[in-house]
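Practice problem: predict the structure.
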Amino acid sequence: MTNIFRRAGVDIPEPFRRFLEGDMDAWLRVEEYREAGSLVVKAEAAGIDPDNDVDITLAGSQLQITVRREEKTEHREKEGYRSEFRYGSFSRTVNLPAAVNQDDIRASYNDGVLEVRIPLPEEPAAGGRKVRVSRGAEAGGAETRGTGTGAAGTGGPSRTMGEDSEGQSFGGP
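Answer:
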């Protein structure tokens, strides 16, 4: 199914792609949120050794977290053994905003939760900035003179004439 979307050039978000590929159990469950100028990604990772079982890589604007959980065989010999724990390798790729500082990414592990903090670039001040519109030579370029009469028939800069979407005229002398 995902091959059909891929051939059509449609990019499917990861949870839907994994569902369509039948790979729902092999993905790492995460929480993502913004806090104090950082993107925080928390992943369920109980029962692992963070020094040996975790790989966090950054490639371009994507953060990939891979966790490996090995099954302990000591319980299999017990009578009535049943396990619903998930074992194996689990990964998740998180798309990052552009221009994150890769050197400042930090990861920690506490109480079965892996936390990755990615500092976000400062956003421009709200409200934006007004841009002044200048005229003629003041704009830093040569005036455009047309073959028409220009302003008041002086041969000055030509003006564009036309109609807007409601049929109202604009421009002209």
